[in-house]
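Re-running Major facilitator superfamily (MFS) profile domain-containing protein to confirm reproducibility after the cluster update. Everything else is unchanged from the original entry.
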Amino acid sequence: MTTPACHNFAGIATNRFLLGFVEAVVNPGFVLLMSMWYTAEEQPLRLEAYYCTNGIATMFGGLIGYAVGHISTGLPRWMYVFLIFGSFSLVTGIFALWLLPDLPSKAKFLTERERAIAVDRVAINRQGVKNQQFKWYQVWQAARDPKTWLLFVMAIGAQVPNSALTSFTSIIVGSFGFDTLGTQYLQIPGGAVQFLTLLIGGFIATKFDGKFHSRNTCMIVANLTCILGAALLVGLPDSNKWGRLVALWLCYFQGLGFSMSLTIVSSNIAGYTKKQVTGALLFTGYCVGNIIGPQTFKSSEAPGYHSAYIAMLVGYIVKLGAIVSLYLYMYFENKKRDREAIENLDSDTDTDAVENGMLDQTEIDNKGFRYVL
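Result of re-run:
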């Protein structure tokens, strides 16, 4: 809402920095809330229901912006976009601050007994709920944990192509030969692909939890689809505008791969401090990727942007490598712990594992912990 008040580069830069500063906590905070309120089995569908709103924004955001652009009275037209969406975000934030509890034990809409049940039901995650003490040993453990850096690399790879599906979408669709209105309404199918992919993927990962390693399968299939789309963007001739457009729509599968990785943090990282640090590093990678992505759109290559499409393809390949490596690491670690549990009859029982989780042990320290694949 303050963007229209900016009149020079310094003002815009400061405003954007502050926006990023306060916005940076939204997704990591949601991941933490997910792990406090829902069991590991329930998390994928809930998280995808939250994340699929990006698809709704893609479908209708451009059209709303196009409609607002036809306002011919009052302020400059571009200001209305920021004022309308900024006001909506502000009101939504106020309601969230008022209605959304940070812990099940503090939920005013639950009775005392229901609060106890809400805490007890997530104990099976073997992660506890929340710990007020910041533990430095968990910070160092996160820094040494291969999962942390695989998630970091995966986030960079996922977000390098992101600018093509957000900020530069209208320019890309326009480069295929469509007019201004066409660049807006032809984003609707891409948004629909993202919306439906996220919900269907979340349903599959929840419905078939524990079967065919559903979360990682969803991530891998989604990323292979993105690789196909990016490869077609690189390889198809400029004259094949509909083929290139469908290829761009296929790249909207990327939302499922990235958002499902957030369940890796919510379900497979234990220790409250470690979960915060891992989530922060993952979203640092997210930011790095979003910084790199726009630099691949060279004005000298307009309207072809061949380097940008190659960067998209490379990003998806890097992301796939990180996903597969993370899956294999967790899979073999589970197998190792299962063997150790059989060999050592005094190893932690399920009850011990739950109690250790409530004591804020990390997934590495808690030998009764098993990764959800």
